[in-house]
Amino acid sequence: MYSFERNFKLKDGTPAAVHILAEVPQYVHDVAHICFNEWPDAYIKDFDIFSVDQCAEDLRKNYMQTDKVPIVLVAHTSAGRFLGTTTLQLRDMPKVRPDLENWLASLVVSPEFRGQQVGNHLIAAVRALAYSLAIQKLYLWTEKSATATWYERHGWRHAGMQDYLGTDVFLMTLEVTSP
Description:
- The protein is α+β, with helices and mostly antiparallel strands.
- 30% of the residues lie in helices and 31% in strands.
- It is built from 5 helices and 8 strands.
- It has helices at 28-38, 40-47, 52-62, 118-132, 145-152, and strands at 5-9, 15-20, 71-77, 82-89, 103-109, 137-142, 157-164, 167-175.
- Strands 1-2-3-4-5 form a 5-stranded antiparallel beta sheet, sandwiched between helices. Strands 6-8-7 form a 3-stranded antiparallel beta sheet, covered by helices on one side.
- A hairpin with a 4-residue loop joins strand 3 (71-77) and strand 4.
- Helix 1 (28-38) crosses helix 3.
- The longest helix has 15 residues, at 118-132.
- The chain is globular and about 40 Å long.
């Protein structure tokens, strides 16, 4: 079993951490709720998940390991407040790009904590986790050019556009090096 913890502080000094969901399962519903509501079309059309409850059940059934992909990461305060999440996923476009493996997927921060560096810490945590699992390359997709620019500031490179569920999205890659 692999254990993971990355401690940080929010801009206001509040202590926070990133953990693997399997180590903090009390956040399953928070993860399901924020992810399903952020990307309902992807869950419905690409993963056949039709509700927050189905998403939570899928997390409990398929995402509770600590030492192999897929692994969900959760950011939370030391007082237990959910901040955001991301996933190190084997395939994030399974019906469109089954040839690409190892994705940073579902990075989302609770609206009230955006701008507090939570996303930066989640990206760094995924990178460290991927490195520890000997993953050499990661992929991600995003619909927004501003978000693609944000990822570029974190070392990601634009790899082209991809039609995904009727929308052109930015496909990006990252060579995983030591954190």
